[in-house]
Amino acid sequence: MVYCKNCGKEVADGAVICPNCGVQISALKGEQKEKSPTLAALLSLLIVGVGQFYNGDWLKGFGFMVASVFCALIFFPLVVVVWVAAMADAYLTAQKKNEEIS
Ligand SMILES: [Zn+2]
User: Fold this and answer.
1) What's the CA-to-centroid distance between 10 and ligand 1, angstroms?
2) Reduced to 3 states, what is the DSSP secondary structure of residue 33?
3) Which of 8, 9, 16, 26 is most buried, by the most CB atoms less than 10 A from its CB?
4) Is the pTM of the predicted complex or chain greater than 0.85?
5) 24: pLDDT confidence band, cut at 50, 70 and 90?
6) What is the Å distance from ligand 1's center to 3 Cα?
């Protein structure tokens, strides 16, 4: 959740205009590309860590990859945990990056 700078009310993530006071919260910059949280999560679903690469988090992406391989060697069901965590992280990070852009 983000807060409107004008009235302080909670506004949905990614909202451009505050539904409460109608003030523009974030200007979408044309030159910086928005990340798609869905695409980021989807990429991490296909290959663990790739969603992080998409977000530009190379270290984190490698971390998730190594962690998933590690988990696969120790106790395979753990991979699912890493997998879901990587997907959730990719999704949330993409959202956060979008907020930073705007
Ligand atoms: Zn407002």
Assistant:
1) 8
2) coil
3) 26
4) no
5) confident
6) 8
Going from the Cα of 15 to the center of ligand 1, the distance in angstroms, rounded, reads: 11
How far apart are the CA of 37 and the centre of ligand 1, in A?
25
Distance from the alpha carbon of residue 19 to the mean position of ligand 1, in angstroms:
7
pLDDT in tens, 54-95: 999 999 999 999 999 999 999 888 899 999 999 999 999 999
Instruction: Report which secondary-structure segment, H or E, holds 24.
Output: none
Confidence of residue 27 (pLDDT cuts 50, 70, 90): low
Closest by CA position to 51, among listed 59, 63, 40:
40
Q: How far is the CA of 32 from the centre of ligand 1 (A)?
A: 25
d(CA 68, CA 54): 18
Per the listing, tokens 């919260």 go with 25
